[in-house]
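Working notes for the structural subgroup meeting. M.R. asked for a predicted model of this chain before we commit to crystallization trials. I am recording the input and output together here so anyone reviewing the notebook later can reproduce the run.

Input as submitted:
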Amino acid sequence: MLVITRIPTHRNDRTKVSRREMRAILNRVSDAFAGYTLEGPFQGAWVADDGELYEETSYRLEVIVSSKCVNEARELFIDIGIQLGQRAIYFEVREGGEIIGLEQGVTMSKRNIKKSARDLLTLARKLAETPGLTWVEANNAIYGPGGPFLRMFPTKADRTAFAGKDEKRQIDELIDSLPDPPVGPQRREYSGKFNVRIPKSLHAALASEADAEGVSLNQLVVAKLALHLQSH
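Returned structure, recorded in token form:
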């Protein structure tokens, strides 16, 4: 399952959420669900029950969880919203998304934890040299799903041990030193469904062609639309 929320860059009283506090929130999410993806920031607005309009800039946070952990994610996101003094917080659940582990989760020795921490710090330093790299891009590259953090520290015990290392502090300070990404427009989500009114004669012709081809009407229309887009 994919759970989605929004983390605002400012509280409702207009005070800025510090980079340190944002990193602490992301660490909570990572510790709970072993990874996340952060996008944005995006501009948006919402209207409270009392009619007050709130315009805000926020990051889009995605986490892949099992169905039995959806409520746990919901409670965590609510707690984060309360921490930030929000009147409300966005929460969405979608089908899909899976992280497939390819290695057995064997707890690492202290020596291996230290070596992996040094290796991850070296990688982070090289990554930070990328021109124009933002802190969100660096954060996702290191801590996001499929990133080196989860490969180097595959178990929760490993990640807990890494959290106390000086290399972890240095990596987070390095990420925090990078610039903010530019604010983009509100990201529009598409459901994959829409209704179209067409003449009855065209409907009949499409249905007849679909029957002749042995496919559904939906499959025929999708194929025709895709072919048309490829030709332009």
